[in-house]
Amino acid sequence: MSESQNIKSVLTEDRVFPQSAAFVSQARLDADRLAALHAAAARDHVGFWGDLAKKELGWQTPFTRVLDDSQAPNYRWFTDGKLNASANCLDRHLGARGDKLAIRFEGEKGDTRNYTYRQLHAEVCRVANALKALGIGKGDRVVIYMPMVPEAVMAMQACARIGAIHSIVFGGFSSTALKDRIEDAGARLLITADGGHRGGQIVELKRAADDALAQGCKTLDKVLVLKRTGHDVAFDARRDVWWHEIVPKQSERCDPQWVESEHPLFLLYTSGSTGKPKGIQHSTGGYLLGAMTTCQWVFDLRDDDVFWCTADVGWITGHSYVCYGPLACGATILMYEGAPTVPDAGRFWKIAQDHGVTIFYTAPTAIRALMRLGDDWPKRYDLSKLRLLGSVGEPINPEAWMWYHKVIGKEQLPIVDTWWQTETGSIMISPIPGAVPTKPGSCTKPLPGIAVEVVDEAGDVLTGKDAGGYLVITKPWPSMLRTIWNDNERYLKTYWGQFSNRYYVAGDSTHRDEDGYYWIMGRIDDVLNVSGHRLGTMEIESALVSHPAVAEAAVVGRPHEIKGESVFAFVICRGERPRGAEAEQLAKTLRDHVGREIGALAKPDEIRFADNLPKTRSGKIMRRLLRSIAKGEEITQDVSTLENPAIVKQLAGQD
Ligand code: ATP
Ligand code: MG
């Protein structure tokens, strides 16, 4: 990659926020302890992880071999050890933490339920016994299609308990998406609910499940149905089983099924922002170790924390930081079923106040949406218990970071901007809150035992102090995906093929600055090439969002005869969508603003204002679709998995 093609960070962000002294004084990891971990990992990468696995996990049969790389890049960890994930999350807390709350739950309508570790353990055992009664055993796949209620976590834990492999399909997905995933996984059982509550409406889960089953799903024998909403749903007595009829009568004892460390704990299909979803397969031992250690390092998780990760269990974030990591650490998790703005825009902050939330972990899309609703809402609530804030899912624009820092964090709380993927299983790059100063928009530095590098197009590692290129991981790590379900060829090609199996290629482009801090610039496909200069879409978006009139922006490239590509920006304003002369005026102002922030090169050739952006159900901007719109192509892509398919017309300038 020549110098001019090197992906440069063109947006200057000089603000640095030191760790707060109050936080450092009680942190699990301060700078010295973090340095010791890094040093240990650098000395002996495999030994480092082996020691942690012995210390943190409860093994029924201890492992003797840490890493088996004989079939690399299909790596295997702790292979001859045996354990059970549910025993690690529940049974081992029964002594000291039996009466401590494991789950605090609040529904959209305000209904609440709490479970202590002892109660959760008993419930999980009952569900596990019910699964056995339905003929499910070790290695069988179980698809879970449920609302964000405690029973979703119980279902996951129950599968883990008997060695069944769960695959969660997000409750917002359509019947077709559900059918595709059931068939790809070859699932024998579906666990669903009559419906869920969201935005004052009922999410028709059972109806969608019935549709999916009518379209195929031949491997499926039974459907276990939780009564959540109580509204009328079709019920096929030969196939469907009510949760309340089978679960309560089961014994609250169920011995865990000990499984090999490599036994698949779950499959999870990626969100599909970049194409056909992949069934990512995770292991038991390695995955759980990653989820646990990152809870301790990144979230500084301790016994008295109330940890609220707002992600749905349908996403990897909900697996690692709702269900597995925090419970394995013995913390209290908060689960909320509904929308953030019901009955009003203060709901999230009211929940945080009422439940004494100490750690709050959400996505940039939510932060930008909450920011757009104004500062008055969070100010009405007592958020004094909060001690740590987190972000995941997309690059967080410095502007949104500053809002989070000022308005929610009162300029006191550390923010952890965590970079990772469904495939990585757990957080890879993130500040350690008691040890690493933060910079708005940067996920800072890799965690101990995570070997990240930047490489150029030839696959050569860039060692400079100012490097831009592909983000790769050069050594295996325990929570890495093991394969793509039913498609190891695709696993090899997608993640390892590009540089002849030398590195795991994340698919993101990044820039590393002179302090060794990483700035994620977006997907490799999203990088623009304007007159020979490579620009990350993220930076132009952040420049736009730094203007007070702008709430959100998405930038894509459009082929241009002279420049190669030109910049096309979709902009959402904080107030009403401007039209006519007002829109023209604002577009000019924003072009000049980007020119000042980054340079003339990055000025959008076209700016289109809209009420919203096309988002995947996990809240990510669907740039693939915007690229087609910018090119003026007819939209042939499937928009049914969008959260707001109606917006496509407006974005295409037809409204
Ligand atoms: P698919 O792989 O099917 O396209 P997806 O990549 O959107 O779906 P996820 O695994 O949920 O599915 O998302 C991981 C991606 O999210 C990362 O590759 C990165 O692009 C982005 N991402 C996650 N966290 C951050 C972060 N803190 N900063 C920047 N980008 C992030
Ligand atoms: Mg991805």
So what's the CATH class of the domain at 531-652? Alpha Beta
- Measured on Cα atoms, how large is the radius of gyration? 24 Å
Question: Beta-strand level of the residues, as a percent range?
Answer: 15-25%
Q: Can you tell me the CATH superfamily of the domain at 531-652? A: ANL, C-terminal domain
The best one-word shape is globular
Oligomeric state of this protein: single chain
In terms of structural class, how would the helical and strand content be classed? alpha/beta
Query: Terminal Cα separation, in Å?
Result: 42 Å
What does it look like?
Its EC number is 6.2.1.1. The modification N6-acetyllysine is found at residue 620. With 655 residues, the chain is of the alpha/beta class. It has a domain at 531-652: GMP Synthetase, Chain A, domain 3. Helices cover 31% and strands 21% of the residues. The protein contains 21 helices and 30 strands. The chain has an 8-stranded mixed sheet, with helices on both faces. The protein has a 7-stranded mixed sheet with strand order 5-4-17-16-18-19-20, with helices on both faces. α6 packs across α7 (150-162), α8 (175-185) packs across α9 (205-215) and α11 (285-297) packs across α12 (316-328). The chain is globular. The model is unreliable at 1-8 (pLDDT under 50). Bound molecules: adenosine-5'-triphosphate and magnesium ion. Magnesium ion is lined by residues 270, 274, 421, 507.
